[in-house]
Amino acid sequence: MQDRIDELELHYMHQEKTIQELNEIVCRQELAIELLKREVALLKEQSLLMNSSVTRDPDQEEPPPHY
Known about the structure:
Blueprint: H1 2-50, H2 52-55
């Protein structure tokens, strides 16, 4: 009976370690996803600024600075 209890305790300890490792991975991935979301938003904003003439009507376009 004691061998069975020891085996269950060992199995439980391995599961706890695995759960903790998976939790750490999920936390790191969450941070990485948030960083990537911010970077995508920044790139999207920069892209919109660079391509503003594509999205604007010609009447709304500002004249170049040399005019």
